[in-house]
Amino acid sequence: MPKPRIQRRTAIEIQQLLSAYQASGQTRAAFCGAHQLAVSTLDSYRRRSPTPAFVEINLPPPPPDFFAIVLRNGRRLELTWNALPHVADQLEGLLLRLEA
């Protein structure tokens, strides 16, 4: 008596399974148990699934290289971000004197 032919999953079905697995947050064993799937089969699908080489991300624009402090009298003090740690105490004292 011949063995019954095993129904193969289509590429779309495999992709749907992989997407469901990724979204589930479950372990491989828990997911496979819930979907009546062998862990080795899931692993095989994951190995054969094309993974993107690059993922597009959106980065915020870089901050400017400098910042400016504009005083009420119109004077403008421009500093680089690299200089800030070195002049922070002096700058605070200067601003306090100018405010008085």
Contiguous uncertain segments of 5+ residues: none
Biggest sheet features? 2 strands, antiparallel
Strand order of the largest sheet: 1-2
Give the tally of structural domains. 2
Compute the average pLDDT: 84
- Topology, number of strands: 2
Hey, roughly how much beta strand do the residues contain?
Answer: 5-15%
Taken from the alpha-carbon principal axes, the silhouette is rod-shaped
The helix fraction, in percent, is: 40-55%
Q: What would you report as the Rg, rounded to the nearest angstrom? A: 31 Å
Tally of contiguous helical segments: 4
Q: Which class best fits the helix and strand makeup? A: mainly alpha
Distance between the termini: 101 Å
- Name the helix and strand elements from N-terminus to C-terminus, one letter apiece: HHHEEH
Please characterize this protein's 3D structure.
With 100 residues, the protein is mainly alpha-helical. The protein contains 4 helices and 2 strands; from the N terminus they run αααββα. The chain is 47% helix and 10% strand. It has a two-stranded antiparallel ribbon with strand order 1-2. A hairpin with a 5-residue loop joins strand 1 (66-70) and strand 2. The radius of gyration is 31 Å and the shape is rod-shaped. The mean pLDDT is 84.
Question: What's this entry about, in short?
Answer:
This protein is mainly α and 100 residues long. The protein has helices at residues 11-24, 28-34, 39-48, 84-99, and strands at residues 66-70, 76-80.
